[in-house]
Structures are given as structure tokens and as C-alpha cells.
Write a structure and sequence with these properties.
Helix content is 4%, strand content 58%. It is mostly beta strands. The strands form 2 sheets. The protein has an 18-stranded antiparallel beta barrel. It has a two-stranded antiparallel sheet with strand order 7-8. The longest helix has 10 residues.
Length: 414
């Protein structure tokens, strides 16, 4: 039996949309709309190598993601609607081979469900170059980032105002109250990612400004009520060295502290991280460093903290941890094979605080091969292959070998 949950928009917003859609005002709402369907076939195998981690996890699943984005009504305040529908189907897995890996939800005894799905939407209101969205959405902000690294994407519900009234300046302010995890049909109170400690809301505010064509500065503030507050500042600069060579620097700084009743304990730490990348033709060579200092681990929502050493398996954000990364990317378009890319990297972390001592170590080595068919009857079919090795020691106990295969296809319906 399919588990499907509809997340309705507030009745008042639907009523406003209904009024605005009467008569000729609705023409742009339909004419400027877009719709797409993405089909994803996802397989993941995890082989645990630590003594108390079980044996293996194998899951094979099929996903369908349908998106609709309307235009805006031709009214003083333009009104629109974004909608999203998703269905995940288990193809092969069973109790004992399924786990907390973010693909298929499980019953209380660990048995993966046969299928799950959901329908969500957001009303949007546009005035000049400012848009207010209310409902479910997929934010990509330094203090809140959705994840699409498994079968279906995660999302967050609330309200977000995005303003671009000044050339080069983008401002965001909002409040999020619920989250829909990537392997769930339910909408739950927004929560800290460790321990699932719920909060009443997450407030976000900030923006980015293009100082020069090659330099962008950003600042954001996030507050997860009664758990933590966080300041972020970032600089991204691209320096063209020649016609086919450039140097990109990406610097990020977070200052985090506990908030209100501090339901997850004390946070009082700094996270300074940055990456330097040299692009030469189809090659890109990158190096990164990340330093955690102060009390507590780096706090964030969801699965993807906005740090340079975020990898396929690890985040390298434990208390007092230092980590560095070496990465290589190649775009085979330089050899006349557009659509084919390769990435490999190694991340090493040490000095994590474990049992009162700065001793914990972990490292990750991974590679990815990605190809999108460029023409013919299979045009836009993509294949992604990932291989991951993760090891830890000196008080940290997670050793995993992992393989992921994703085959997908995205088609524009109109």
C-alpha cells in the first residue's frame, strides 16, 4: 500500500490564488509555467568494516519526481504556485539489508516500506523584483541547505522572502517550521540533525552582494530556537589568469553559539574553512582546509553543512577537528566528449575531541564518474557512479566501503 501524504497550502492563500486566476489575469500564470519529470533509479551498497556496525546494507529503488512552476498573474501583486510530487518504490531490499541511509523509510522492526510518496506546494507572491514564498521549498542558503543525494530530495516548509531590488544584491529573510526528510512522507517539526531534537522554528536572514564581476561577499544569520544561533560570512573570488586558466578562492567562516534553553547543550565554536581551485583547460586542482575550534561540534540542519570538506559520507565537523582535502576534477569536453566528468578526492581529519582528548581521526577517499547523453533517443539520460571508502580511529568507530549507482532521466513536459 502506497504511503502518500498531501501537504495542502493554507486555505487563505488558495483563496487569493483563486481570485487572482479569474479572467485574463491568469494568462501569464499558465503561459509562463514549466513542468518537468525526473526518473531516478538508485542503488547503494554499504559494507561496514567496524566490529559493531553489522554487515552489509543493500537497497535498490526507483524514484519519480514531478515539478510544476507557474508564472505570475498579471495583477498588482503577481500570484503563482509551485508544486512538487514524488514517489519512491522499493525494488530490492529487506530487513537486515536496510538501514538509516536516507533512501527508503523503515517500519519499527527495521523492515523497509514498499513505497512512499508525497505532494507539496508553495504559493508565491511577486512585487517588482521581490518574491515571497509560503509553503514547501528547497532552500540553498549557507545556514540551511536541502539534500538531493539519495532517491528523493528533502525540503523545508515555512516562508521565505527573496529580494533583488538592487543590482548585484540578493537578500533573503524567512522562517522555517517543518522539514520533510528525503526518505519520509511526513512533515515534522524542524529539528537539529543529531538526536532529532525538535525546535519551534528556524529563522534565517542575510544575503550576497556582487562587489565586482569576479568577487562576491555574503553574510547570513540562522537561529534554531532554543538550540543554536549562527553567523556566516563568505567571500568567493575568481581570478582569470589566461584564456583557459583561472584561480578560484572560496573562504567561509561560521560563528556558532547555543540559543535560549540550549536543548542540545553548549555551542561556542568557530569554523574557518576555505578552498583554492586552479582550473587549466579541462583540469581542476583543488586544496581545502577546515578548522573547528571551541566548544561543541559544528551545528547544522539536515545532511549538508555549508563547508568545503563536506564529502559523500563525512562532514569533518566534529569538535576541535582539523581537516584538509586534495581534489581533482576533469571535464572530458576538453577531449571532445561533452557530458562526461570525473572527480576524485581525499579528505583527512584529525584532533577530534573524543573522551576529553583531541585524538580522533577519520579520512575519506571517493571517486565519481558522471555522464549525460548529449543526443539521440537517449538524450538527457544520465549515469552517476560513486565509490567511497571511509575510515576512522583513535576513539572514532566508523569504517565503511560504499558503492552508489544512479541512472536517471529528466524531461521537460512543457
Amino acid at each position: 500500500m502506497m504511503h502518500l501524504r498531501l501537504r495542502p497550502l493554507p486555505c487563505t492563500l488558495l483563496g487569493l490564488s483563486g481570485i487572482a486566476l479569474s479572467g485574463n489575469a491568469s494568462a501569464a500564470f499558465i503561459e509562463d509555467s514549466t513542468a518537468s519529470l525526473e526518473v531516478r533509479n538508485f542503488y547503494m551498497n554499504r559494507d561496514f568494516r567496524h566490529s559493531d556496525g553489522g554487515e552489509k546494507q543493500d537497497e535498490w529503488s526507483q524514484g519519480f519526481v514531478l515539478r510544476f512552476e507557474s508564472g505570475y498573474t498579471d495583477t498588482p501583486i503577481g500570484i503563482g504556485l509551485d508544486a512538487y510530487g514524488a514517489l519512491g518504490v522499493k525494488l530490492d531490499s529487506a530487513r537486515g539489508r536496510s538501514g538509516d541511509n536516507g533512501i527508503i523509510p523503515q517500519s519499527a522492526d527495521g523492515t523497509p516500506t514498499d513505497d512512499f510518496g508525497e505532494l507539496r506546494g508553495a504559493a508565491k507572491f511577486k512585487l517588482s523584483n521581490s518574491v515571497l514564498r509560503i509553503g514547501s521549498m528547497f532552500p540553498t542558503l549557507p545556514v540551511l541547505n536541502y539534500n538531493y543525494g539519495r532517491l528523493l530530495p528533502s525540503s523545508y516548509s515555512g516562508g521565505l522572502l527573496t529580494s533583488q531590488e538592487i543590482d548585484g544584491l540578493t537578500l533573503n529573510i524567512g522562517r522555517f517550521t517543518h522539514s520533510d526528510q528525503r526518505n519520509s512522507s511526513s512533515s515534522d517539526r524542524i529539528a537539529y540533525y543529531r538526536g532529532d531534537v525538535e525546535s519551534d522554528h528556524l529563522d534565517v536572514a542575510g544575503g550576497s552582494y556582487v562587489l565586482t564581476p569576479n568577487l562576491t561577499a555574503s553574510y547570513y544569520y540562522g537561529e534554531l530556537k532554543d538550540i543554536y544561533s549562527q553567523h556566516f560570512a563568505g567571500l568567493v573570488h575568481t581570478w582569470p589568469l589566461s584564456e583557459n586558466m583561472s584561480l578560484r578562492s572560496d573562504l567561509r567562516y561560521f560563528r556558532s553559539s547555543d540559543d535560549g534553553s540550549a536543548r542540545m547543550g553548549r555551542f561556542d565554536n568557530d569554523n574557518l574553512n576555505g578552498m583554492l581551485s586552479l582550473s587549466v583547460g579541462g583540469h581542476k586542482f583543488s586544496g581545502a582546509y577546515q578548522r573547528m575550534s571551541g566548544d561543541g561540534e559544528f551545528p547544522f540542519i539536515g545532511q549538508d553543512p555549508y563547508v568545503v570538506n563536506l564529502s559523500f559520507h563525512g562532514t569533518f565537523t566534529k569538535e576541535e577537528m582539523d581537516s584538509w582535502q586534495l581534489r581533482y576534477d576533469y571535464d572530458f569536453a576538453a577531449l571532445g566528449v561533452p557530458g562526461l566528468t570525473f572527480t576524485t578526492r581525499y579528505v583527512n581529519g584529525k584532533n577530534a575531541l573524543v573522551n576529553g582528548r583531541e585524538q580522533g581521526k577519520e579520512w575519506e577517499r571517493n571517486s565519481e564518474l558522471y555522464y549525460t547523453v548529449q543526443s539521440g533517443p537517449l538524450k538527457n539520460v544520465f549515469v552517476q557512479l560513486r565509490n567511497i571508502t571511509f575510515r576512522s580511529s583513535d576513539g572514532l568507530i566508523r569504517d565503511v566501503d560504499e558503492n552508489r549507482v544512479l541512472v536517471g532521466y529528466k524531461v521537460s513536459l512543457w
